[in-house]
Amino acid sequence: MYGVDKGIGPLAGAVTLDRGDLIHPFQIEGVEVRGRLVRLAPSIDHILKSHNYPDAVSTLLGEALALVAALGGMLKFEGMLTLQTKGDGPISMLLADWRTGGDLRGYASFDAARLATVLATGPATLDRLLGQGYLAFTIDQGADMERYQGIVSIEGTSLAEAAERYFGQSEQIHASFRLAAGKREGRWRASCLMIQRLPQQSPIGAPPSPKDVEREDAWNRANLLIATVGETELLEPALEANMLLYRLFHEDGVRVYTPLPVQARCRCDAERVRTVLRSFGAEELADMTIDGRISVTCEFCSAGYEFSAEAVQISP
User: Considering the entire predicted model, what is its pTM?
Assistant: First the structure.
């Protein structure tokens, strides 16, 4: 059984290139497991190429952006979801954020010499790239609402493991992830396959009912199935998203809902940058001024801005 909204589904005998930049929500029929399949292509290629990071940094940032898109697409309110890591490894900081409507952006800070040493002496695992530190998720619903933030220490060899630990420890939510990022035909792609177990309805402390046993079996089966998905399937343009979900869950049946769009979009502009500069003290601005001008590069999109000293209300 394969269920869809608005006629979205695999076409028998057809090969459809998955252009990406979509979040595909889905529900496994008859059981309390739902999920998201994120495929990113033009957006992630634009973001990563604008930074020109080493491949190991771009790969990890690509996974983070796919992860934050999967989680952000679940928000039921206007706001922003941010994933941030800080550690003492060669990649000292990673930041990816999602804004309602599908706007995605991110950047990383790293030490090139330390990164080269780590890559020359072993695998590019999460613990070796980030070192000791923390992973944080922040939800911001705007100026009139209090921000929510959850933090866990960085553990595990992959970002998927770290995210599962975060949700299990900080949110008490059963969630599993498969993440991948890499180049296909010279272009970056990224993907996240996420499943989530819906909250248990039985009273706390009650003995397991037949429904509870069925629910547990369904969750375990879904985890076994997504564990079979590798990087090739997640990133392959010729494997359309609906077909991948059908391959995985056709025995139970899977209902795929209307996909949500994603786009690379930074919120910087000249006026925002000018406002930030005006918040600095005169001495700090003087240190930034070279030949009467201040140059600023946006960390998210690498756009450059230049202002005269007078434009930010300081003397040259």
Answer: 0.87
